[in-house]
UniProtKB/TrEMBL annotation:
<keyword id="KW-1133">Transmembrane helix</keyword>
<keyword id="KW-0961">Cell wall biogenesis/degradation</keyword>
<dbReference type="GO" id="GO:0000139">
    <property type="term" value="C:Golgi membrane"/>
</dbReference>
<keyword id="KW-0472">Membrane</keyword>
<protein>
    <recommendedName>
        <fullName>Glycosyltransferase</fullName>
        <ecNumber>2.4.2.-</ecNumber>
    </recommendedName>
</protein>
<feature type="transmembrane region" description="Helical">
    <location>
        <begin position="52"/>
        <end position="73"/>
    </location>
</feature>
<keyword id="KW-0735">Signal-anchor</keyword>
<keyword id="KW-0333">Golgi apparatus</keyword>
<dbReference type="InterPro" id="IPR029044">
    <property type="entry name" value="Nucleotide-diphossugar_trans"/>
</dbReference>
<dbReference type="GO" id="GO:0016757">
    <property type="term" value="F:glycosyltransferase activity"/>
</dbReference>
<keyword id="KW-0812">Transmembrane</keyword>
<keyword id="KW-0328">Glycosyltransferase</keyword>
<dbReference type="InterPro" id="IPR005069">
    <property type="entry name" value="Nucl-diP-sugar_transferase"/>
</dbReference>
<keyword id="KW-0808">Transferase</keyword>
<feature type="domain" description="Nucleotide-diphospho-sugar transferase">
    <location>
        <begin position="151"/>
        <end position="349"/>
    </location>
</feature>
<feature type="region of interest" description="Disordered">
    <location>
        <begin position="10"/>
        <end position="40"/>
    </location>
</feature>
<dbReference type="GO" id="GO:0071555">
    <property type="term" value="P:cell wall organization"/>
</dbReference>
Amino acid sequence: MSFRQQLALRFHRRRSPPSPPLPTCYSAAPPLPPRDASSSSSALMSPEISMLIRRAAVIFTLLTLSALLLYTATDSLRSSSVSLSSSSFARIFPSSSPKNPTQQLEQVLEHASMVNKTVILTTLNDAWASPNSVVDLFLKSFKLGDGTHRLLDHLVIIALDQKAYNRCRIVHKHCFALVTEDVDFHQEAYFMTPHYLKMMWRRIDFLRSVLQLGYSFVFTDADIMWFRDPFPRFFPDADFQIACDNFLGRPDDLNNRPNGGFNYVKSNNRSIAFYKFWYSSRETYPGYHDQDVLNMIKFHPFISDIGLKIRFLDTAYFGGLCEPSKDMNVVCTMHVNCCYGMDSKLHDLKIMLQDWRAFMSLPPDLKNESIISWRVPQNCSLSSLRHFDSPPPEMDVHQEEED
């Protein structure tokens, strides 16, 4: 090597600083291959893709939870609907209710009761429950009567079938469904048919249960019009007092012919024993209804043995078509008895309400003169019944339906 070459080599080594020593644990990695454009772009987009994936996962989770909640809510609603239907059915048909029907009855009675645990009771089936039928005229009489409107607060309608119960819930606030297994009471029960007898005896047994709950009651058929408060006319010391088809003049005369459509009964041991005896007597006298059986057992020694005090209500105050009350100034109730068929009853009930309204429209001095008397019976007329004189001016019987 020439002197010039050696000098150039030395100058080059002086220009390049020495490399620092490598650690002993370092091993040189092979050179990385150059990155192409696609791999560089993929590395650059990976944070955005990761964010999108996370968002998609969150959305999917939310959708899954929403679907699950919707399914749960639907299933719950379905269960609630079934439960509600069962609950409604139970209210209409207490015998199928998990709640004790006696407790249901006691609750209804408690809400309707007067302060002395007295209620007014009537029974209703579908035949008498339709619009513009017996029940509407019955309730209207309380509203037109003298001091009777407030008594509606204490009236309980005992429905004998589902349609009657539904109708009751529309027109009145105190309703109870009394259902008898294997018996359908929704049709009109014609007098003395087997259907009629079952319904009458079911009523007697039910009234016994009311007495056993500690409630006194006034029972009234729905074809009885209430024109005045009857309580002042009741005997304060009687256990059982009942209206009459024919009143002979003395309230303690057992020969009076009672009518089971209206009675006032106080709850005590004597009345409960009497109703049990009355109901059991249906087997002693098969084929007879409750009123005929009462006429037979009222002379029975058992009545005096238990000390039951019976009083018969004067038809002057508690009249009916069998024996109408003559004086509208004192009448409390009027019964469309001695009458057969729904159409006949409806016709004469409407006439009766018209007569009462005509009387109530008179000034006091004319009321006292008794210039108006009943125009009934008409369609309910029997050969033994008669019209009374001085009818009011002729009125349209259909007018009552429109009022």
